[in-house]
Design goal:
The complex is a heterodimer of chains A (456) and B (221).
Chain A (H helix, E strand, L loop, with lengths): L1 H20 L3 E8 L11 H6 L1 H5 L10 E8 L4 H8 L5 E5 H13 L5 E10 L6 E5 L14 E4 L4 H12 L8 E4 L2 H10 L4 E4 L3 H7 L3 E6 L7 E8 H6 L1 H20 L1 H12 L3 H8 L6 E2 L5 H18 L6 H4 L3 H9 L4 H6 L4 H4 L5 E5 L3 E5 L2 H13 L4 E7 L6 E3 L4 E5 L2 E5 L2 H10 L3 E3 L1 H6 L6
Parallel strand pairs in A: 1-2, 1-3, 6-7, 6-8
Antiparallel strand pairs in A: 3-10, 4-10, 4-11, 5-8, 5-9, 12-13, 12-14, 14-15, 16-17, 16-18
Chain B lengths: L1 H40 L5 E4 L2 H11 L3 H9 L4 E7 L6 E8 L1 H23 L4 H21 L3 E3 L9 H6 L4 H8 L2 H28 L9
The chains are: A alpha+beta (456), B alpha+beta (221).
Chain lengths: 456, 221
């Protein structure tokens, strides 16, 4: 009996010690969106390259930590916020409108908060969102949408852009029929010609263009409001494990570097991970692409988020959001410092595609030989004509919109020939105006190529 | 006091009936929503996901400091998701789904139980048939309000979560109007419960009055 008691007491005393000796398991649950290109540097790329694991702390209080990293893929930002509220996700990556809904929903509670810790990428003027019509449609400008049906994923950044675009063009809600459609349904309806127009976020418009089913009539850049994505974190998690958030942000920075290092390799890999065509992804991630990969938090981004919040307040009466309490640069600054990078220098740089893309070469993506560049339009068209002449398969061709600097597929651009000069445009109206001003004519891509086909 | 005693007696008399109807109502409502989705979108569901609801609730309770915050978060936790995934783009996107949410099942169970109590009391009520029809219609309106505002269909429009207005949007109501109405959900649901409760109490009161003064009312004269 005595021995039994002794054994029992000793065992009981040892139990807490045994627990203490066990390594602490830290779960990091991340919600990302594999069908939203602008989130990739904090989502699919970090996941697939194992970049978070690379930067997780291994010393001090983390010496015995066991990491349990889970990634959950969502088709939109809303469910990520819900899962974060339920503490099933610690970190979420999403676009601007869902981001502010995230912040506002958390601040609506008594005891929970999320914080906006970094961006992933941006387009200064708002490219990424766009309004698309069926390729055979006779609609070429937004004012032709009066009385027509326009669908959009309500609550998304594309919805916000659509509202702003309509307001800018003096088209009140009663003058068009707004329908609520998911990206996949909207894209399918555009392909089938069942809807007059569909407004969507990155990369849906370009998927439709690439597949030859849709044509852009309005690019988000026309709103002039930056389009950005970012990373939100549950504040309690960030306070408990600040080093983990810093590690995550270092991974985001490295993911951006990895893409910039070799965009073609990156998009080819990403196609395998996400199912989005690499040629579409190239439009975003290549030099001169829609997306500037850079995680700093600029004042202009804060202003844009405040503007977006105002739009949502008007439309959906979402709760107020204290931006000062919600946004913090502490973690991204710490990540930059640890990596020996200059945060303020990056923060000061703002890439405007209209300036940055001026003079960039046109590109041809040859199915076998990869991407080649051409400094002038005649060089480019000559090469396309020659490749077509040999029956070579071209994955895609890329040119730039003269007006906005936006990178376009050669086949979807509006071409103008004025004398021996060729120019490319996103919108037909501007192409026609340019043609009229320069005694030129609007032509098709095939007609432009035909000018460079050599006999024999 | 007499009214409450009548009510207690009615509940005791009908509790099995209420229990069965409550469960049936909650389950059949899920089936009805699924059929509505299939008819509206002309497609069968192609995926089902089960969620560990008890674990999710446990995590929420442990990680939410304020009790006031817990309820609304738990309220939205899913048990089952049945829907249609579109694989034409990327790795697939859920186009629509029915979300079975335990909190809503509980609400629907109560509605079913209350309706069955109402109907049982109406059947025994000694009022004229016209009045009886009015009572049934009022029960119907109350039920409709609660059921409509507890629909958990998700039409995966971006950034949307299951909301009762999806049902209205599916019927063709404009997006702006639907979103405006979304805020009214709790009010409409509350109004439905008030109607049903008032009906039950009213019927119990009539029964109590009739018991006290059995000759005061003509029974189907």
């Amino acid at each position: 009996m005595k021995t039994f008691l002794k054994t029992t007491l000793t065992s009981t005393a040892l139990v807490p010690l045994a627990f203490a000796a066990w390594a602490e398991e830290i779960t990091i649950a991340i919600g990302h969106q594999s069908m939203c290109t602008d989130t990739y540097t904090a989502g699919i790329v970090v996941k697939e390259l194992g970049l978070l694991e690379k930067y997780l702390p291994t010393d001090g209080e983390y010496a015995d930590a066991e990491w349990n990293i889970t990634w959950s893929d969502y088709s939109s930002g809303g469910p990520i916020t819900n899962q974060m509220l339920a503490n099933k996700l610690n970190i979420g990556v999403m676009g601007d409108y869902p981001l502010i809904v995230n912040g506002a929903k958390f601040q609506e509670t008594d005891s929970l908060r999320s914080i906006y810790v970094a961006g992933t990428g941006y387009n200064l003027k708002g490219s990424g969102n766009a309004i698309v019509v069926p390729v055979e449609s006779d609609i070429y400008s937004i004012d032709q949408l009066r009385g027509k049906s326009v669908s959009t994923p309500v609550g998304s950044a594309a919805w916000g852009m659509l509202l702003k675009a309509m307001q800018d063009n003096d088209m009140p809600a009663g003058e068009y029929v707004l329908k609520n459609q998911s990206p996949a349904v909207g894209a399918a309806n555009i392909a089938a010609g069942k809807i007059d127009a569909h407004s969507d976020f990155c990369p849906w418009s370009e998927i439709m263009e690439f597949r030859g089913t849709g044509r852009k009539i309005y690019d988000g850049s026309e709103t002039g409001v930056p389009y950005l994505h970012g990373v939100v974190v549950r504040e309690d998690f960030a306070k408990e494990y600040p080093e983990v958030i810093e590690a995550f942000l270092k991974a985001v920075i490295e993911a951006g570097d990895w893409i910039r290092e070799d965009p073609m390799r990156a998009v080819t890999e990403m196609e395998g991970w996400t199912g989005v065509e690499k040629e579409v992804l190239y439009l975003y991630f290549s030099e001169g692409g829609h997306l500037t990969l850079e995680p700093t938090i600029k004042q202009a981004w804060v202003d844009a988020l405040k503007f977006n919040h105002g739009v949502l307040v008007k439309e959906k009466a979402i709760p107020p959001l204290d931006f000062d309490a919600w946004i913090t640069e502490d973690y991204i600054k710490a990540a930059y410092a640890d990596m020996g990078l200059d945060y303020e220098a990056d923060k000061a740089v703002v890439v405007d595609p209209a300036e940055a893309n001026m003079g960039l070469p046109m590109e041809i993506w040859h199915a076998r030989d990869g991407v080649s560049t051409y400094p002038t339009m005649p060089d480019f068209l000559t090469a396309v004509a020659a490749m077509n002449g040999t029956g070579a398969k071209l994955n895609a061709t890329y040119v730039y919109d003269i007006e906005t600097g936006l990178k376009l597929f050669g086949k979807t651009a509006f071409w103008v020939k004025a004398g021996d000069e060729y120019a490319t445009f996103l919108r037909k109206g501007e192409a026609e105006a340019y043609a009229a001003a320069n005694s030129g004519a609007v032509i098709t891509f095939d007609e432009a190529i035909a000018d460079f086909v050599t006999e024999g | 006091m007499k009214t409450l005693s009548v009510l207690g007696s009615e509940i005791r008399k009908n509790w099995r009936y209420m229990l069965v109807n409550g469960v049936l109502f909650a389950l059949l409502f899920q089936v009805a929503m699924l059929i509505a989705l299939m008819v509206r979108f002309q497609a069968f569901p192609n995926y089902t996901t089960f969620y560990n609801w008890p674990e999710a609730v446990s995590v929420i309770i442990q990680s939410t400091p304020s009790i006031r915050d817990m309820a609304p978060i738990i309220w939205e936790e899913w048990l089952i998701e049945i829907g249609r995934m579109n694989y034409d783009y990327g790795t697939g996107i859920s186009e629509w789904s029915l979300n079975v949410i335990p909190s809503r099942l509980l609400v629907l169970f109560f509605v079913g139980a209350m309706v069955s109590l109402c109907l049982a009391m109406v059947r025994r009520d000694t009022c004229q048939s016209g009045m009886s029809n009015t009572l049934r219609a009022t029960t119907g309106v109350g039920t409709l309000l609660i059921a409509m505002t507890n629909a958990t269909m998700s039409w995966v429009v971006c950034c949307a979560t299951p909301t009762w207005v999806v049902g209205l949007a599916m019927l063709g109501l404009g997006v702006s109007s639907s979103l405006a109405l979304e805020q009214l959900g709790p009010v409409l649901s509350g109004a439905g419960f008030v109607l049903l409760t008032a009906m039950i109490i009213g019927l119990a009161w009539r029964r109590a009055r009739n018991d006290r003064d059995p000759e005061g009312v003509l029974a189907h004269a």
